Amino acid sequence: xxxxxxxxxxxxxxxxxxxxxxxxxxxxxxxxxxxxxxxxxxxxxxxxxxxxxxxxxxxxxxxxxxxxxxxxxxxxxxxxxxxxxxxxxxxxxxxxxxxxxxxxxxxxxxxxxxxxxxxxxxxxxxxxxxxxxxxxxxxxxxxxxxxxxxxxxxxxxxxxxxxxxxxxxxxxxxxxxxxxxxxxxxxxxxxxxxxxxxxxxxxxxxxxxxxxxxxxxxxxxxxxxxxxxxxxxxxxxxxxxxxxxxxxxxxxxxxxxxxxxxxxxxxxxxxxxxxxxxxxxxxxxxxxxxxxxxxx
Length: 296
Prior knowledge:
Layout: H1 8-14, H2 25-38, H3 41-54, E1 61-66, H4 72-77, E2 85-91, H5 94-102, E3 114-120, E4 136-140, H6 148-161, E5 164-178, H7 184-195, E6 198-199, E7 202-203, H8 209-218, E8 223-228, E9 231-233, H9 238-255, H10 260-275, E10 280-291
Parallel strand pairs: 1-2, 1-4, 2-3, 4-5
Antiparallel strand pairs: 5-10, 6-7, 8-10, 9-10
């Protein structure tokens, strides 16, 4: 997340770029437990059925984790799936790739071996040929940083390659804070606009990403299932809630600079109940599963 001493302009300049706060190891570690609690387990049941249908006797299923960060998706999912697995971890940050590979679990749900290798580079250019032999593509907290064209390209590549896709934790724009504050809706609207901004010449999907992905896969004949996967932050996640609040308010101010004059007082009003364990935050996300045409 952004430096607490930096203004919103610093947040805006760094977000969605290599080494950005949303990709910082400290932030990824802070959110891992909340991510694990939020992901939709019902979709994993459907993934198991799909992989069982694809499995070859003695062969390992290939799973590609796009924008893997420190590997939290692999740590959460590999042990919930049976059978031998080969994970290919994609990210453009070599440091994150090294961390992800080193911390992958070594065993599947039934004790079968799990291995991992890494692949760096820009994942937005993946084509069907790059996914050859892949049974499942995964991503977590990624889609909202992509454009409509990039999400459409991902759907096209998966469909042509016959790969299923489990795309978790895309923001929906739904934020609830209790107790409420008169400025909650104002900052929420500005943050959502920031999520949909132009960044480095690209128009990001932000809260529209989950619906855009579901539509892109459905147009290519995939069976699509979506499930809510909200963060629910309370006293046990006060550290994450504080950092999320700082980033949320900073991004809102970057989008709407007029909010800066209210930001410090608003943040103080939010941090007091947060520190006392009295603030409850629900941050909406959605998980999307796409099974290619012909999948059972």
